[in-house]
Design a protein that fits this description.
- The protein folds into two domains: 2-205, ABC transporter transmembrane region fold, CATH 1.20.1560.10; 228-464, Rossmann fold (3-Layer(aba) Sandwich), CATH 3.40.50.300.
- Helices cover 58% and strands 14% of the residues.
- It is built from 15 helices and ten strands.
- Helix 1 (2-44) packs antiparallel against helix 6 (163-205) and helix 5 (105-157) runs antiparallel to helix 6 (163-205).
- The strands form two sheets. The protein has a six-stranded mixed sheet, sandwiched between helices. A four-stranded antiparallel sheet has the order 2-1-4-5, with helices on one face.
- It binds adenosine-5'-triphosphate and magnesium ion (MG).
- Residues 239, 245, 263, 265-271 line the site of adenosine-5'-triphosphate.
- Residues 269-270, 391 line the site of magnesium ion.
Length: 469
Amino acid sequence: MTGNIHGRLNRCLDGTVKLEKLLFMDLAPAIFNSVAAVVVIVTTLPPVLALPMLLVVPIGIAIVFRQISTQRGIRVELLDTKAAMDGSIVELLNGIEVIRIIDSVALEQERFDRKSEFLRAKEMRHHVQMAKYDCLKFLNEAVFTVLMIGVSAYLATQNVISTGAVLTSYLCFNQLLKPLEELHRILDELSESMVLAEDYFRLAEIPCDFSFLPLEAAPSASTAEPETAVELHHLSFAYHSDKVILHDLDLSIPHGMFLGIAGPSGCGKSSLIKAVCKLENYTGTIRIGGRDLRQFSRKELANTIALVPQNPFLIAGTIYENVCYGLERQPPEQEVYAAIDKACLREFVDSLPDTIHTVLAEGGANLSGGQKQRIAIARIFLRKPDILILDEATSALDNTSERLIQSAIEQLMKETGMTVLSIAHRLTTLKNADRIIVMDGGRIVQSGTYEELIEQDGIFSDMYHGKLK
Ligand SMILES: Nc1ncnc2c1ncn2[C@@H]1O[C@H](COP(=O)(O)OP(=O)(O)OP(=O)(O)O)[C@@H](O)[C@H]1O
Ligand SMILES: [Mg+2]
C-alpha cells in the first residue's frame, strides 16, 4: 500500500540516522567514561571494595540485553502495525468520495478502531515490560549503592580503609553509575533504531526493476529486419509463475504503422504494453528498431517510446509543467499552445484564470477525466516519439474530440514516420488502423483491417455487434 511504504520509509530513515548518531556521538563517550571510571576504581580502591563494586556493570548490561531480546519482536510488530495504519489512511483518503457515497464511514471507522486498539494494546504491553526492566536496572544500582556504602563503612570501622576512603569510594561508584545509566539508555535506543534500520535495508532490497540492471551486450549480428519498429518473437509473460498472461506471441510491426489492439477485458493488452515498455520482465525477444529491448537503457527507451495510459499521471504543477513533463528542454509557450491546440484543449485552457500557468491539484483532481487525458495527449505533440503507445488514451473523450485528436496524431505520423500502437475498447477508435490484432486469453487470435475483421466471424465482430464487451 502506498501509505505503508511512505510511512515505513519515513520511520526507517529517522531510525537509521538515529542509529548513526547513537553509535558515533553517544556510545563512544559512554564507553570511554565507563572504562575511565573502572580504571579509577581499580587503581584507587582496595580490591576487596573495588571488585564487588564492578559487579554492578555486568549485571546491569545483562538486564539491558534481556530487555532488548524480549522487546525486539514486539517492536517489529509495532512497526508493522503503524505501517498498516499509514496504508489505510492513504487508502481512505483516495476513496473519500466513494466512502461518502456508499456511506461506509461507520464501517471504515470500525476497521480503523480495530487497528488502533491493536496498536494501543501492543504499546501498553511494551511500555509495561519496559517499566519492569527499568525497575530491575534501578534495583541493581540501588542494591549495589547500599552494599558499597555498608561494606566501605564496615571496612573503615575495622581500620582496613581510612574514613576518607569511604567518601572516595562513594564518589568513584557514582562516577561508574552515571555512564552505566547512559549505556542502558543508549543500548535500548540502539536496539530500537536497529529494528528500523533493518527495515530500511529490507525496503532497499525490494526494488527489482530489471530495466535498471546492467544492460545485456549486443550480439555481433542483428537478425532483425531494419524496417521493423517493434518485433515480438516467442514472447511470453507472467506476473506470477503460476499464471501465464501472454503466450508465445509473434508479431512484426513495421515503421510508420498504425496498429490497433483489441480484445476482451483481462486478455493481456496492457500487459503486452508493459512488456514492450520494459516495465515487466518477460521471456522471448522484443526488438525495438531491430535492437533487443534488453539492451535499451531507460533513458534510450524514454527517447524512443511514449505511453499514454488510461489514467495519466499529472503532477501538482501548472498546465505548462504538466504538458512539458519529462522533456529536457523548456519549449517556448507558442509550441506548448500548438500542442494544446492539437489535443483539443485550447478552449479549456483559455477559460482558466492563469491560462497555461494555472496550477493543477495533485493528480489533476480538479480536472475531468477527458481533460486529464488531453493534457497527456498534448505531451505527445512536443515529444514526437518514434513509437507512440495509446492504452485506452481517448476513452474518456467525446466522439468529436477523439476524431480531431486522432487526425492530429495521423498528421504527426505522416510528418515523422511515427509508429502507433493503440489499444481501444471503443472499436471506432481503431477504424483507421493499418492493421488490428485481436487478443484473447493472452494470444493473438485474429488479425486484419477494421472492415475485414467485421466481416469475419470471431471476437472482433462479436464485440462490434455488442455480443461481447
Ligand atoms: N500487477 C498485476 N499483478 C498480477 N496480475 C495482474 C497485474 N495486472 C494485471 N494482472 C492480470 O493480468 C491479466 C491481464 O491484465 P491486463 O491488464 O493486461 O488486461 P487488459 O487486456 O489490458 O484488460 P482491460 O481491457 O480491462 O484493460 C488479468 O487477468 C489481470 O488480472
Ligand atoms: Mg488494460
